[in-house]
Structure to design on (319 residues):
């Protein structure tokens, strides 16, 4: 297996990774971005993005992802759709990046793997994915025209995706474990004014039931402990995210929740490895923040390559 050599390899093609690729490529650093699924990360499965500067009318998630990918390529970055299996430090301060089919060598790495949708953890949840259980309204909403749906969660994602689902569903019941929403006021107002949306407060989903497809859910009120069965054709889950850091466990320092530890300069515990976006502890889970972190990590990487001996001269304490 031949080994291609790059100045920078970026693992992950979401907002942080694509922004980093734009900056490293424009700095005339040979850049490889490796993404296992599709460009844009989670934003590619979002319907309408209304809070990204420069688009007063909003922009579709897949469209902004496509534009960012195109810009990175135009700047000179190479993008490969491969799943990274291992990152191996070398004695010459370089790193070997292994995928299923290829082997790459790089002088520095940016970790931008992002995070994945958190599951409820119910017994038959996994086997019903694609059969009524979903974590992406944009991906699966059109399959539920005229159906009744349950959305689990109370943050921005739950309300934004719940509102989107009303384009197809006859009724959307938003199940939230508290009596107050965490979503932004503008989304709360939109959801409350939507006649298709109904709220079920202080409640969790204990079971998802159905033979071969979702047919109902068992709900439990967390205050009274009373349970009830609610018929539904689908369950959409938006209860948070978990960092995609499994690749680097044992390589760089991570916290108890799996987030990569990096200082304010995006430097991890390993010289030459940087972290940006939702895989990094302390990140803000917004596209604009991920893009900013990608920029910051790229500039830090550039400085490290220009000053490899002094870039990590002082011992740091990760916060």
């Amino acid at each position: 297996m031949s080994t291609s050599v790059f100045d920078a390899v970026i693992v992950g093609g979401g907002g942080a990774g694509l922004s980093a690729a734009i900056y490293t490529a424009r700095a005339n650093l040979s850049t490889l971005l490796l993404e296992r699924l599709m460009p844009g990360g989670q934003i590619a499965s979002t319907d309408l993005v209304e809070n990204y500067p420069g688009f007063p009318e909003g922009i579709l998630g897949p469209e902004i992802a496509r534009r960012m990918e195109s810009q990175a390529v135009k700047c000179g970055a190479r993008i490969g759709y491969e799943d990274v299996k291992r990152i191996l430090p070398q004695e010459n301060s370089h790193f070997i990046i292994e995928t299923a089919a290829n082997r790459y060598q790089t002088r520095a790495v940016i970790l931008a793997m992002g995070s994945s949708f958190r599951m409820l953890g119910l017994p038959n949840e996994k086997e019903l994915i694609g059969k009524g259980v979903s974590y992406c309204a944009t991906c699966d909403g059109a399959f539920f025209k005229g159906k009744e749906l349950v959305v689990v969660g109370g943050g921005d994602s739950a309300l934004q995706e719940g509102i989107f689902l009303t384009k197809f569903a006859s009724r959307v019941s938003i199940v939230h474990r508290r009596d107050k929403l965490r979503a932004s006021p503008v989304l709360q107002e939109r959801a409350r004014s939507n006649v298709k949306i109904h709220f079920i407060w202080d409640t969790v989903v204990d079971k998802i039931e159905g033979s071969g497809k979702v047919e109902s859910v068992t709900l439990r009120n967390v205050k009274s402990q009373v349970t009830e069965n609610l018929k539904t054709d689908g369950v959409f889950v938006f209860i948070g995210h978990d960092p995609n850091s499994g690749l680097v466990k044992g390589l760089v320092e991570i916290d108890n929740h799996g987030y990569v530890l990096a200082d304010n300069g995006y430097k991890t515990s390993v010289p030459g490895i940087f972290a940006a976006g939702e895989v990094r502890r302390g990140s803000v889970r917004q596209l604009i923040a991920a893009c900013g972190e990608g920029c910051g990590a790229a500039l830090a990487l550039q400085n490290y390559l220009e000053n490899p001996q002094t870039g990590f001269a002082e011992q740091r304490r990760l916060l």
Q: What stands out?
A: The first strand starts at residue 3 and ends at 11.
